[in-house]
Amino acid sequence: MKTEKIIEVKNLNKKFGTFTAVNAISFEVYKGEIFGFLGANGAGKTTAMKMLIGISKPSSGEAWVAGYEVQNNTEKVKKSIGYMSQKFSLYNDLTVQENIAFFGGIYGLSNTQIKHKTAQLLLALSLEDKANELVGNLPLGWKQKLAFSVALLHDPKIVFLDEPTGGVDPITRRQFWEMIYAQAHKGTTIFVTTHYMDEAEYCDRVSIMVDGKIAALDTPKNLKQHYQARSMNEVFLQLARKKNNS
């Protein structure tokens, strides 16, 4: 059982005018854990993640990421994490090698480190012959794997993945999750948002967001037992029905 807290959230809120996008959520994530942040599109997942990575200011509440209080230590938080957005965070008009060098520079790596990491990454992804290829010409699955690897360039304690497998085929999705497992095995914490309920089965624990609130949080096994469900999709449907009937 993982016990070292690396993310701690207390009564976090985000309002846009009179609309409450994230409503008093509280949870903890442990070192080396694969933590799934699930919910339908518009449930508040991405808004909550943006607060945790320091690019959106909470309306109220508190959050600590990698030991730093988010509101007052934004830059320290950003240096301690990796981030992969829904659009894969890469520049299509730069080559594979140029993207790696660009983000390596942003993460503060030296030229020697960038050179070493580039060779290491290209070899690991079997992209040596694509080093000078524009990223925009790569298949979606390769972009996805490259973006994940680039988010890990500076050996962050936590990687935030926002809907990382959207639009890719099932085989590529499975390969991507194998990369996630391998990284978590090294001690990196993975915080992943998704609306694919089957992906919840791959997580150590999952939080399910419904209309800005955390409706359930536990291991997939415990949630299925509690809701007498055969799949996480059934759990989610029960929670959605419960919300609609309340």
Automatic annotation (TrEMBL):
InterPro entries: AAA+_ATPase (IPR003593), ABC_transporter-like_ATP-bd (IPR003439), P-loop_NTPase (IPR027417)
Primary site of residence: membrane
SMART domains (UniProt xref): AAA
Record GO cellular component, one term: membrane
Transmembrane segment boundaries: none
Membrane topology value: Multi-pass membrane protein
Keyword ATP-binding: yes
Single GO MF descriptor: ATP hydrolysis activity
UniProt-listed Gene3D superfamilies: P-loop containing nucleotide triphosphate hydrolases (3.40.50.300)
Name of the protein this chain belongs to: ABC transporter domain-containing protein
Organism: Flavobacterium crassostreae
